[in-house]
Design a protein that fits this description.
The protein is mostly helical. The protein has 3 domains: 45 residues, no CATH class; 72 residues, no CATH class; 116 residues, no CATH class. Helices cover 42% and strands 9% of the residues. β1 and β2 form a beta hairpin. The chain is globular and about 70 Å long.
């Protein structure tokens, strides 16, 4: 199911299926709305515009969406009529609309997710195009689960590249992250920026890295045979290489050779 969803992100997307011993391709290109408790798999999150929802409070006046309610049905019919009329008008879309300045530096799927929506909004006039761009900028400024995880990957890559280390303890990695200017890790407010500012902890860092398949391991210093030296929880350069290769142009440098092991951590 995940591969079906992911394949429909771009025009021309399809999946092969065998029907009576014959392989056929089925088009999967379509808009989708998915509701979930928690977070979706990261590749699907990247292909989505995330709208975080909260459970209604007892005092909230929420109208039930009921197909038996004539008012509800009437509203749906109105929307359906507008959408149908627009789709049949064959109105030409500029599939590469001018993006807001705040989005032009965002490469990859984030900008791709907004291009068709802004294109559709532009077809309704300048006012709706302006509203769509304002919405896109608002989402770009907020830290969603998948965004902040990628930012963390980038900062960790820079730390490994700067030090030339092949391993680092969780404690020392946190210290290095907090020293990164304008990183925001010293005033971390959670994945949704809705919590009290605090310093990023090792546990929170581990939770952010978990969707990438990266988990803390026992890290031994070079002089581990010396009496009194023990292992600590931390990370190896090799654990990040796959994620760096997927999310960045360069995988973050070559791993240190066994003969030149560098180590960052308390001795």
């Amino acid at each position: 199911m995940r591969s079906v969803f992911n394949s429909g992100h771009r025009q021309g997307g399809s999946i092969p299926r065998v029907i009576k011993n014959v392989t056929k391709k089925f088009s999967t290109f379509a808009p989708m709305a998915i509701a979930a408790i928690g977070i979706l798999p990261l590749p699907l999150m990247e292909r989505s515009i995330i709208n975080h929802m909260e459970k209604a409070a007892p005092s909230d006046n929420i109208e039930r969406f009921d197909e038996k309610n004539s008012v509800t049905v009437g509203r749906v019919d109105i929307v359906f009529g507008f959408v149908t009329r627009w789709s049949r008008s064959k109105l030409a879309l500029n599939l590469d609309p001018d993006l807001p300045v705040e989005l032009k530096h965002r490469i990859g799927r984030f900008a791709d997710n907004w291009r068709p929506l802004i294109a559709i909004a532009d077809s309704f006039g300048l006012v709706w195009g302006k509203v769509a761009r304002e919405a896109a900028v608002t989402f770009a400024r907020s830290h969603h689960d998948e965004d902040i995880g990628v930012i963390l990957l980038s900062d960790i890559r820079n730390i490994f590249n700067r030090t030339g280390a092949d391993r680092i303890t969780s404690v020392d990695l946190i210290t290095a992250l907090l020293d990164v200017e304008e990183s925001g890790w010293s005033e971390y407010q959670g994945v949704r920026d809705d919590q009290q500012p605090r310093k990023l902890s090792a546990g929170e860092m581990a939770r952010l890295l978990k969707p990438f398949g990266i988990r803390p391991r026992s890290v031994w210093p070079i002089a581990k045979r010396r009496k009194g030296i023990s292992s600590r929880k931390g990370y190896y350069h090799s654990q990040f290489e796959s994620a760096w290769a997927r999310y960045f142009d360069e995988p973050g440098g070559t791993p240190a050779q066994d003969s030149k092991i560098a180590y960052i951590g308390s001795r």
